Amino acid sequence: MPDFPPADDLQERGWAHAETSKVLRLYDAGYSIYDLEAESGIEIRHVVIQMIRLMFGAQGYLDDENTAPKSGEVYSREDQQLLRSMYLQGGSLSEIAQALGRTMLGAGWKLLSLQIPALSAELRKEYLTGNDG
What is the pTM of this model? Predict the structure, then answer.
C-alpha cells in the first residue's frame, strides 16, 4: 500500500509576502507561535508549516507519523534537552526529528514554541526590511 500523506496535508496554504512578513515580525518581537494565530488570523498549523519551511529550510512532507514512533507524545525534559542541544550544534530538522522519534512538523513546532530559532539575516532582509506593509 503506498504511503501518501492525508489529502488535507497535500495542499499547503498560499502565502502573500505581507502575511509572511507580519508573522515573522511578530515572532521576532517575542510573540508565541500560539499568539501568531490570533494576531494573523491564520490557522496555527499553517503558520507553523510556513515558519518551518522558511526557518529550517524543510522540504517535502513534514508530518509522516509512520517514521515517528513518539509522535503526539509529550516531550520529556530529556527530549527537550536533546532538541535544544542538537539544534544548537547545527543538526538539521530532519536529523533532530529522527533522533527524537518525531515528525519534522512536531520537532519544528516544539522548537518554535520554545522560541529557540532566531530569524536569519536572510529572512530579516527579505521579510522585515522594505515596504511590505
Answer: 0.87
